[in-house]
Design goal:
The chain is of the alpha+beta class. The chain has 3 domains: about 230 residues, Multidrug efflux transporter AcrB transmembrane fold (Up-down Bundle); about 80 residues, Alpha-Beta Plaits, CATH 3.30.70; about 110 residues, 2-Layer Sandwich (Gyrase A, domain 2). The chain is built from 11 helices and 15 strands. A 4-stranded antiparallel beta sheet has the order 5-6-4-14. The protein has a 4-stranded antiparallel beta sheet with strand order 8-7-11-12, with helices on one face. β7 and β8 form a beta hairpin. α1 packs parallel to α8 and α3 packs across α6. The longest helix has about 35 residues. The chain is elongated, with a radius of gyration of 27 Å. The two termini are about 25 Å apart.
């Protein structure tokens, strides 16, 4: 077996230190009074309503005289939810008030300096619905929301008598001719016509036949719920009215203003105690495990704070913090299993290299089984308690509608924690341990749990 180079430990440890620093404090550039964010740190996290508070806004039609149906209000609610989820705002509440023709939304602040007006600016914009040739928005524009007369979720029967969930579409006269030409072209090529809402593709159905009369159906819906959600999104993009914020207010955090600071202090103390105990009990194995745990914690924070530019900051709630703590505990357990296995191999008389190799191998499947179980639980929590627009949400769209929120945040941080545990606690910690054990100064069996010579 090829040996791990001695310098691997120093390279991995250095990269982890860099990750920890940048994940906590971020990277910024300054030119005069202008400060640009290169990498977001902890201050880029969007804290949930329970920690920092948020915005309470009621949306209604700009024109109070127009007629509004319940389906149209559901459409407004659906598009607002889609925009919130697209921004990784998962700790939200959204309700329709049909009697007063309003949609009520509550969601957390983006930052301490944000005003209610700034928070709702993008959320309340009128949706832009477009139909394009092919699966790219660069394809030819066929229709807009102004050309859609109606979109409804329906049930039909196929030739075998099975129930099929579909979305029925009806075009206005302004869109019938263009839609007929587009469907004729795409049916001949077995192509698609994609449907886009706010620059996000919400459907990409394959065209089977020409539709000359402006009435068609989107089939292939796995559930009635998904059909209703797609119909609501199309309806929201075809609304004949603009919406505006009728009332704006702020929500106070349920925990108090000093709770976050107290939690931070508690987390630092707990992490320090874990590191000390690991080093005292397992020596070099504990030292390496401590470095790996710091890397795991930093990577989890990075996946929440928007560290990676393509992803917005994730909403961190109290259950989300609990998920992070639990994942760190799983990481500690992972390293303890490996360290105990290495210790047993040394006390059985094996050499340091052989003990580390055998101990790592023998402990892998126990760690793998436990982590995979937690991974499945986290994915199910995210699916069941997330909307269909969220990660894993589409797998459980057949369940009753659930407002994405605190439980989803718990599942998300738990999922990220387990994945990062595989990277740092299973892979990189073993690379570092094999590497550092090759240095002459550390080639003493008692440093890895063996008996003193």
């Amino acid at each position: 077996m090829k040996r791990t180079p001695k310098w691997s430990f120093f390279i991995v440890a250095f990269l982890i230190v860099v990750l920890v620093y940048t994940a906590l404090f971020g990277v910024y550039s300054q030119y005069g009074d202008r400060v640009d964010t290169i990498i977001r740190g902890v201050d880029g996290i969007r804290w949930g309503i329970d920690i920092r508070g948020g915005v309470d806004v009621t949306f209604g039609p700009v024109d109070d005289e127009i007629e509004i149906t319940a389906n149209q209000l559901d459409g407004v609610k659906s598009i607002i939810e889609q925009r919130l989820v697209a921004k990784n705002i998962t700790d939200y509440e959204a309700y329709t008030d049909v009697a007063n023709r309003q949609v009520i939304v509550r969601f957390p602040w983006a930052s301490e300096t944000e005003t209610p007006e700034e928070a709702v600016k993008e959320i309340g914009q009128t949706a832009v619905l477009e139909f394009h040739i092919g699966s790219e928005k660069s394809g030819k524009l066929v229709l807009t929301g102004n050309d859609i007369a109606k979109a409804e979720a329906m049930q039909t029967q196929d030739e075998n008598g099975n129930i099929q969930h579909v979305v029925s579409l009806e075009m206005k006269d302004s869109g019938k001719k263009a839609f007929a030409e587009a469907t004729k072209q795409q049916a001949a090529a077995e192509g698609t016509i994609s449907i886009w809402l706010d620059d996000q593709m919400i459907s990409n159905p394959t065209v089977k036949n020409e539709i000359p009369n402006g009435k068609g159906m989107i089939d292939g819906m796995p559930s009635a719920q998904e059909a209703r959600e797609l119909a609501a999104l199309i309806t929201s993009g075809a609304l004949p009215f603009d919406i505006e914020a009728k009332s704006l207010g702020s929500i106070s955090p349920t925990m108090g203003s000093n709770a976050l600071y107290a939690m931070g202090i508690a987390a630092v103390i707990a992490m320090a105690l874990v590191v000390v105990l690991m080093i005292v009990i397992y020596r070099m194995s504990g030292f390496v495990a401590a470095i790996a745990l710091c890397g795991q914690m930093a990577m989890t924070i990075a996946c929440i704070s928007g560290y990676f530019g393509a992803l917005d900051s994730f909403t961190m709630t109290l259950p989300g913090i609990a998920g992070m703590i639990l994942s760190i505990g799983i990481g500690v357990d992972c390293n303890v299993i490996t360290a105990e296995s290495v210790r047993d191999e040394l006390r059985a008389g094996k050499t340091i290299d052989s003990a580390i190799r055998s101990g790592s191998k023998n402990s892998f499947w126990a760690i793998f089984d436990g982590n995979i179980t937690v991974l499945i639980v986290a994915a199910v929590l995210m699916g069941v308690f997330g909307s269909s627009n969220t990660l894993f949400g589409f797998l459980f769209s057949w369940l009753p509608v659930s407002t994405t929120g605190s439980v989803y945040a718990f599942g998300y941080t738990l999922l990220i924690g387990v994945i990062t545990n595989f990277i740092f606690g299973v892979w990189l910690s073993r690379v570092m341990l094999r590497s550092i054990s090759r240095l002459k100064i550390f080639r003493k069996a008692w440093l890895y749990g063996g008996d003193r010579a």
